[in-house]
Specification:
The chain is an alpha/beta fold. The protein contains 8 helices and 7 strands, in the order E-H-E-H-E-H-E-H-E-H-E-H-H-H-E. Helix 3 links the parallel strand 3 and strand 4.
Amino acid sequence: MKLLINADDYGLTTGISKSIIDLFEHDAISDTSVMICVEGAVERCHLLKERGFSKKAGVHLQTTLERHHKKPLSFPDDIPSLVDSEGFFKSHECDDPIDPDDIELEWERQIVKLSEVLGHVPSHLDSHHGVHRIPHLLPVYLKLAAKYGMPVRGGRAPDQIKASSFGVKSTFVANGDWTGRHLPLSALQKIILAAMPAVGDGVFEIVSHPGYLDDDLIKSSSWNTVRENDYNELLALSKSNWLEDNNINLVCFSDL
């Protein structure tokens, strides 16, 4: 089976970003997804380039309000359905409808911004809090992926994202059942083994959220101590022969 392990939220904090670099250097993850709207994310992306991992960095498309990463790249007047009166992203619990044209403009600016920072088109697209799965936003997500020739994160079931109809490649299915729950490596291994019969020649994607715990992380995310567990267990997986013993190959979005 082909397995892809993606580390979400690169750029959110220095501790998260450094832990992801460390996992790259131990061949413990395949790719990462960058939150380019976060203050300091551009500077943290320089480390990706310096360590030679920029070709494994995709865009973690943002639209949702959180403590320290609530400003879009667009001017508020350009995306009125996405922002409040102060120009911040609206809460993801807000019932106001999102205009697909607004989301397309903001998401494309995030893609272009990260492309400029990295010096090339990012490796893939996915989204923070999975907002790309909202039915009327999914076509925008796939349209942008097709425009820039980028593969995308698959759904929770194969039929959730018909990427091929847009000429877009995707992982067969993305699984986030293990991440952020203080679960042991054995639980992750069980999930991977259970997926093998259905995946076939496709790529099974594991979503992860590694990070080093520090004050910045505690201030920036409700997912803080759980990130160290993700980091430690992924590192343990990379240091074992378990994937090789089970005929599982770790692949990247660029291999799709």
